[in-house]
Amino acid sequence: MSNLDMNKKIGIVKELLKNIHRGESVEEIKRRFGDTLSQISPFEIPIIEQQLVREGTSIDDILKLCDLHVELFREFLKSRELRDVPKGHPIGFLMRENEWILKQADALALYASALTQSRGVEETKNILGALNAVVQNLRRLRLHYRKIQMLIFPYLERRGIVAVPRVMWGREDQVIVKMRQLSEFISKLLAVLINGY
Fold this sequence. Notes:
Elements lengths: L2 H19 L4 H12 L7 H10 L4 H20 L11 H27 L4 H18 L2 H11 L1 H6 L4 H33 L2
C-alpha cells in the first residue's frame, strides 16, 4: 500500500468520524463506511485517531466518538479477533478478563431491566442487592485497566502512538468514576428502602 493510499483512507475515515460527531445518522454512516471499512485494518485506526489529535480534535471529542466508531468497526473486527494466543501470555489474561467484564456488564443490564419491572419493596431491595454485588465486583476494573496501562501503553507510546493510550486512559477514568457514582447511588437507594430515609 502506498502512502497516498493510506492518506486517502485516513482522510475518508476522519471525515466519516467527524460526520458522526456532527450528528449524522449512524445508519447512513454505516452504509457509507462499509466499503471503506473493508479496506481498513484495525491497526490503521490508531493512526487515524493520532491524526485527529494532531489536527486539534480534543480527547473528549474522541471519547464521545468511541462508542459510535466501535459499533461501526465491530463487524469488521469480529473477523480479525486475536486467536491462538500462547498459554500464559499477558494478552491472554487480558482477553479473559475482558470476557469476564462483558459477562458482568450483561448481568448489570439484566438486573437493571429487572429493576424497572420489580413489584414491591422487597423485590426491589433484592434486585438492588444483586445489582450492588455486580457493581462491587466490577470495581476490580481498576486492576484490569492498570495492567493495560502498564503492559500495553508503553509499547504503543514508544512507537509514537500516543492518541490511543490517552483516549483509552480517559475512557477508563470515566468508567471508574461512573462505577463509583453507580455504587453510591445504589447504596443510597438501599438505605432509603431499608431505613425509610
